[in-house]
Amino acid sequence: SRAFQVLNGHTAAVTGLEVVPANALLLSCGRDGRLLQWDYATGQLLGKQQLHGQELLCLAVWHESRQVYVGSSTAQLLSFAMVDKLQAEEAELQQETGQADSAVC
To answer: What is the pTM of this model?
Structure first.
């Protein structure tokens, strides 16, 4: 059978997934050291964290605090803020119109 939607962004095996229905977010981590945050309805990549020299092995979300926790191959537990979809969409629009200096991730 064919995939309903393919989200490209990882360059190595995906090791963790979490769905956040209240925000229509999908979070993924992988052996490439990337933590990616997606709008699962549109497939748009909203946020990306890149950790060099580490594989990310698992993830969990604390919904009330909007925190994402990932476990790494270097025996660390790392915490990141969940992306704000509205802020990410505004930053993308500003980039497209040449009004932003840098992207929000």
So the answer is: 0.79
